[in-house]
Amino acid sequence: MSSGAAAAPIFAEGEDCRAAWREATAGYDEPDAHLEILGKPVMERWETPYMHSLATVAASKGGRVLEVGFGMAIAASKVQEQDIEEHWIIECNEGVFRRLQHWAKAQPHKVVPLKGLWEDVVPTLPDGHFSGILYDTYPLSEDTWHTHQFNFIQVTARAGLCGEELGRGLSGRSSPEFPNSFPGQGHAFRLLRPGGVLTYCNLTSWGELLKSSYSDIEKMFEVSCSPPQSRARDEPEPLHDCGTHPWGWGRAKGVGASQTGARPGCPLTAAPPSPPLPQETQLGPLLQAGFRRENISTSVMELQPPPECRYYSHPRMITPTVLKH
Ligand SMILES: C[S@@+](CC[C@H](N)C(=O)[O-])C[C@H]1O[C@@H](n2cnc3c(N)ncnc32)[C@H](O)[C@@H]1O
Q1: Does ligand 1 lie within 6 Å of residue 24's CB atom?
Q2: Atom 13 (ligand 1) nearest CA
Q3: Which CATH number fits domain 3-158+181-231+278-323: 3.30.70.20, 3.40.50.150, 3.20.20.70, 2.60.40.1120?
Q4: Which residues are in the RMT2 domain (predicted)?
Q5: Which atom of ligand 1 is nearest to the CA of 77?
Q6: What tens digit of pLDDT does each residue of 47-104 get?
């Protein structure tokens, strides 16, 4: 790959691959070292130790594991080596899904392949169904490049609900659109049983942030922020800006008020937080979804990507472990 290609941004301004992604060719190369879809570097074999780290966390509680995004089956194969009962996998691309079906036939533990965008499949899955979740999909548009994982993690916002109601989960009612999505619970939190574990990544985002904004990968994940002290222990993090994080998270493109159903006149929108945090802060959405700070940890591994990798050049990679109490 030329250095020109290496320097090109992964997404051009306004680029949106959503409509074409499902039918697009899954470009696995001959040594099975790379997967490209619509010219995007979706998955590469050098990530193997990192994928194994994520898979080990996701399978660490045994039971039924949900994996979102199949790619090259690197993580999935590691999950299958663990002491689990079932392995449910969501994948939206046709070619990748065919590979998943073929791969599933040879696995030691039951595989449940689920075809479609996770945004369509996840709301159909029952509450508390999984002991572990591994979320590793791919941004399908420039506007979700840095934030798609938050759509899976953060509290579901519904038009007509003020941020305060959502943050406290007061209404506790589902919507006809998403019968299994309750305001006050993000998808990940809802799907996990108590004691279950979530792990996830967005390397296409994190690789970019580590080029442009951060040199310390743990800082990139956490960014220093202290939750308000006055909150009761069991109370979820309140929202701000009708669906945004109280310290400023959520005003990023794609997760702003228009998407989260902001209600004009919501008193929380009147006072913008200060100082705002960068849009990519990982901790805020996890806390807002109901996970507790003391149950969120990370481990860092050394792994040098090959120089030709377009999306990641940092020599360290971070594995989150997020336990549901
Ligand atoms: C980075 S790869 C996953 C790599 C995998 N963890 C591995 O070890 O090989 C991301 C996968 O997520 C799929 N994907 C992207 N967006 C998705 C969505 N919204 N719903 C379901 N699958 C999605 C892509 O087609 C791709 O196969």
Answers
A1: no
A2: 69
A3: 3.40.50.150
A4: 14-325
A5: 8
A6: 999 999 999 999 999 999 999 999 999 999 999 999 999 999 999 999 999 999 999 9
